[in-house]
Specification:
Blueprint: H1 21-34, E1 62-70, E2 76-81, E3 84-93, E4 98-106, E5 112-114, E6 122-123, E7 132-136, E8 142-147, E9 157-160, H2 161-164, E10 169-177, E11 180-187, E12 193-196, E13 205-206, E14 219-223, E15 226-233, E16 236-243, E17 248-255, E18 260-262, E19 266-270, E20 275-280, E21 286-290, E22 295-302, E23 305-311, E24 317-324, E25 331-334, E26 336-342, E27 348-354, E28 358-366, E29 372-379, E30 388-392, E31 396-398, E32 406-412, E33 417-425, E34 431-438, E35 444-449, E36 452-453, E37 462-463, E38 467-477, E39 485-494, E40 509-514, E41 519-527, E42 532-543, E43 550-555, E44 564-568, E45 574-579, E46 587-594, E47 600-607, E48 616-621, E49 626-629, E50 643-646, E51 652-659, E52 668-673, E53 678-681, E54 693-696, E55 704-709, E56 718-723, E57 727-731, E58 745-746, E59 757-760
Parallel strand pairs: 1-29, 31-39
Antiparallel strand pairs: 2-3, 3-4, 4-5, 6-7, 7-8, 8-9, 10-11, 11-12, 12-13, 14-15, 15-16, 16-17, 18-19, 19-20, 20-21, 22-23, 23-24, 24-25, 26-27, 27-28, 28-29, 30-32, 32-35, 33-34, 33-38, 36-37, 38-39, 40-41, 40-59, 41-42, 43-44, 44-45, 45-46, 47-48, 48-49, 49-50, 51-52, 52-53, 53-54, 55-56, ...
Length: 761
Amino acid sequence: MSSDALTFEEKQVDSRTARRRLSTAITAVLALTAGTALVAAPPAGAAPAPAPAAATAAAGNTANAQDVAELPVGAGVESVGPSGYLTGLSKFLWDRDTTSYEYRWHRPDGTSEFVVPPDSAWPEPNAAVSDIVPILNPYFDAIRLRDMSAPAGTAPVVFDLKKLSTPTLSYTYVTTIGSTPLVRVKPTGGPQELRLLTKPGDPGKKITGLPDDLDIVPKVRAAGDTALFQYRTGTTYRLFTVDLATATAGAERTTASSSFWIDADRMAWWQDETTLVVTDRATGTSKTIAFDPTVYPVAGLLGDWVVHGQRSTTGTAVGLVARPIAGGEPVKLLDSLSTVLPGPNGSLILQGGTIEHGKGVYRVTPGADGRPSTEQIASSGEGITLTLQKANVAPVVDLDPGHNRARLSWELSHGYFKADVTLVHKKSGQRFRYHYEDTRGWSGVDLAWPGNFASSRDEVGVNAYNGQYRWELDAEPTDGIGPDLHESGDFTVTRSPKVHDYNDNGSPDLLARGSDGVLFRTDTVYDQGKKKVLPVGDPTPVGSGWNYPQMESVGNVAGTTAPDVLGVDSAGSLWLHRGTGDEQNPLGARVKIGFGWQIYNKLAGGSDLTGDGRPDLLATDKAGGLYLYKATGDDAAPFAARKKIGTGWGIYNQITATGNIAGGTAGDLVARDKDGVLWLYLGKGDGTFAPRVKVGAGWNAYSQIAGIGDANRDGRSDLYVYGPDNTSYVYYGTGSWSAPFAARVPTDALINTSIKYTNVL
């Protein structure tokens, strides 16, 4: 049995009785040398204080006292004595970037006290069942033995190892057995000795019979006047019994692991990977017990029973059972387990939990019929089944740039689980799925949702719609304890309206008209890994009869959250198609909002040119005049009367409103002249433009130029271009007025060999 398989605390000690003649004798010596009498521990046969509502008569049942003591959350049981038990609790102090440790002694009446002031010294577990708590100074060269059963104010007994050490002889603390410190004495150039310190100032009593080649500190567990010392040499474990009264070691035994136990009647150790040897201390006879390799390592001895757990797939214990040494059916003790320690009067003190009573400290004793019975003596108030403690999901999740990944998390009652998180858009039923498996004991699921529909958080999926959502958390505890967890809740996804988002999911869409008047919509998504804009599926037809000589996407001018489209028919009537945000029908029925628009040959909409937060409209007439139609916010009359803001615009064959593309205070405009040179006009915010800036030449290679909005989710407006040879590119905005676009990046959006688009919005 490999010691690496153990997850029980290595500080376990195994004993069945309180201290016998040696501990009683040493207590008397300590009382004389300290000048103040230490109160002796209760005799070995004394019973602990009775708990209300004794354990149920049915063997193995867990009785729970009506008023059990409170155990601080996170505290771990370190050692046990007849009058109580010691717990340690670590707390990380964020303001000081350090860890604070608290050690308390808990008594049967529910009271507790600090063993030492927090952080001032280090209590160590006792190698036997004892009320004596050894307290080491930070240098580990002075030992204070505090008797927790003594009256308040009783002075501890102090062993000063500095005074015992000499230039050629060093004393090192090993452990305390009952009231007796065990030290290693190492002479310069010679083999080590192990000594028992019977009184302060005395050089100690040497333990004889140990081989000289054991030049390491042993692992010690004791019961009464006998201790077991274990050493490791390479991969071999060597075990010795030590008579504490005579300080004499017995014969050496070789064991298969670092796990061994001793109580008043028996000793036990592993003979090989699956065979446990249990030896009767009185007769010396041994019995071997075969264990299945999947059984969790043995955790203790309890009368005529061996206590052990079952191994789960994660290596954690699933319950604790007692198995008769003589053979027979096991008895269930706990549903979960973290620590097993020997207790007074043949008991075991367990830290773990049951589904019924939750986490805490339990005592198991042989019942009236000899079968083990368990009762809870302290509770931390925590359950052991997998439950949701807190859902950190905001009621409203903002997915605008700067909030690209929504932080969603769920705090669970414990780690070791498999979880599936599903985010469901209520209207469409589309889903995002995320699978998580905790193998480290981290009690939570943390999701950085990129705001899409995908089967994992790293998959490039279509952007998630705005609107109402339901989150679903389905988790399975991998420790096998309790039922699966199923929880759900609601939240809302929101973004500010986008100038080219026709299906209400935050990503730009493109509208393209074929030569037959059919209008198509294609959604896009940005692949962060490839730095590329991708189309979502093939272009979807969304209407027919779109035979306007002029069409323009103008942003939200009609009071909805979706962008609208204007069309000018051959008679010069101006028609408004309100955006709906619907996936299949993104544009509503047309409404006539003007006439006489046949005088204009170019339209450009979507930029806020006047600084009021509304997208305005620009038009050029055949004489080269440039006119501004300021948005009103009135859906019945979305534009104010025109205002002429420029002349000479007849040199351009295409103008495109881009939104704020160069970092200024208002929306901007690009214009391509007849030579294919593209020019940038920075908006001033008052309906006028700064002098033009040359962007570059060669733009006559494209038949369509559209301000697509923020295609790569960096918070800047981008430009989409479409070529007559079925070519398609995106120019990402840089935010610089002198070089407003990065090099073009190809995209498959609107690439179709069977359709030639005559207009792209």
